[in-house]
Amino acid sequence: MKTDPHPWAQKLDELRDEVWLRLKRGVLDRRAPARNVTLATVDRHNRPQVRTAVLRSADKETSVLDIHTDLYSSKVQELRQNPFAALHVWDSSAHLQVRLDGRVAVLTGSDVADIWARVPQTSRHSYGSTPAPGQPIAEGLGYTKIPDPASFAVLRITVSSIDALHLGPKHRRAQFTAQDGWQGQWLAP
Amino acid sequence: MKTDPHPWAQKLDELRDEVWLRLKRGVLDRRAPARNVTLATVDRHNRPQVRTAVLRSADKETSVLDIHTDLYSSKVQELRQNPFAALHVWDSSAHLQVRLDGRVAVLTGSDVADIWARVPQTSRHSYGSTPAPGQPIAEGLGYTKIPDPASFAVLRITVSSIDALHLGPKHRRAQFTAQDGWQGQWLAP
Question: A21 to chain B, minimum CA–CA distance in Å?
Answer without folding.
Answer: 20
